[in-house]
Amino acid sequence: MKVRSSVKILQSQGLGSRRECENIFWNSEIFRNGIQIDPEIDEISWGDTLLIDGNTFEITQYKYVLMHKPAGYETSHLPSHNPSVFDLLPKHYIKRGLQAAGRLDLDTTGLLLFSDDGQFIHRLISGKVGTRQEIEKIYVVKGARPFTELQLKRLVEGVDLDDEPEIIYASRANLLPDGQLELGITTGKYHQVKRMVAAVGNHVDALHRRVVGPYELPVDLAPASYIEVDPAPVLSRAPDKVA
Q: Which residues does 179 contact at the CB level (< 8 Å), separation at least 6?
């Protein structure tokens, strides 16, 4: 028997195996955009909003998710000794292949992006769409000691990190009114912010990521919460042409 397109779409959303999705389609109460469907004659399409047995699902080809990562969570599907950020997402998001765009350390909080769109993930992780279109990541850093103007100047002028072949520059380094440092970077080296701060003679006591490229962490988004976001600000930026 030919598999209905609706069943394939349900399966693509991480709602189960083909057999499980066939059971959902034929035996569950499904409302499509507010109208109950008849599985004998109706089909599910991309862009539909479904209510399945009381649960709402937005039918999309890809998911783009922004999370407020709390401290104490590992950015890994296979965490070592702590809970995973993926535990904070619906199971059907994970089943459809959602991945994190980079990672935040266990003790780092703030903006973390996820998607099952490989192009979106690649552009965020590479940190660059074109030579003049860099993905800037902005952190708020609490230092062990007050930051000095000399330290800020050194961060912008570039610091030499062990095992890195080139000088590493901050895209911005501003002292905030509360004494914390606003630090911007456009590269993604291992423990980069902590190593940069150490290189100028300070130590990171707390680290929070506020911005990644066009995405800013909403002030009212509680830790461990997430929202879906529009990928267009990243995907609409054309890469440089190869000569």
A: 146, 147
**Residue of 214, 213, 217, 216 whose CA lies nearest to 135:** 213
231 secondary structure, DSSP code: -
Taking only the tens place, the pLDDT of each residue in 27-66 is 999 999 999 999 899 999 999 999 998 889 999 999 999 9
Tell the residue number behind the tokens 């083909």, with chain if given: 18
> What is the per-residue pLDDT across 161-190, written as a single tens digit (0 to 9) for each?
888 888 999 999 999 999 999 999 998 888
The three-state secondary structure class of 51 is strand
Residues 6+ apart with CB under 8 A from 166: none
- Residue pair 75/85 in contact (Cβ under 8 Å)? The answer is yes
Which residue has tokens 């267009």? 232
Question: Would you say the pTM of this structure is higher than 0.85?
Answer: yes
Bridge partners (DSSP) of residue 134 are: 128
Beta strand residue intervals within 43-187, DSSP E? 49-52, 55-58, 64-69, 99-100, 109-115, 128-130, 133-134, 137-143, 172-175, 181-185
Enzyme catalytic residues: 105
For helices 18-27 and 5-12, the axis angle rounded to 10 degrees is 120
CA distance 196 to 202: 9
Alpha helices per DSSP H over 13-113 = 18-27, 91-95
Compute the distance between CA of residue 13 and CA of residue 241 in angstroms, rounded to an integer: 34
What residues does 184 pair with on adjacent strands? 138, 172
Q: Let me know: does 69 contact 108? Beta carbons within 8 Å.
A: yes
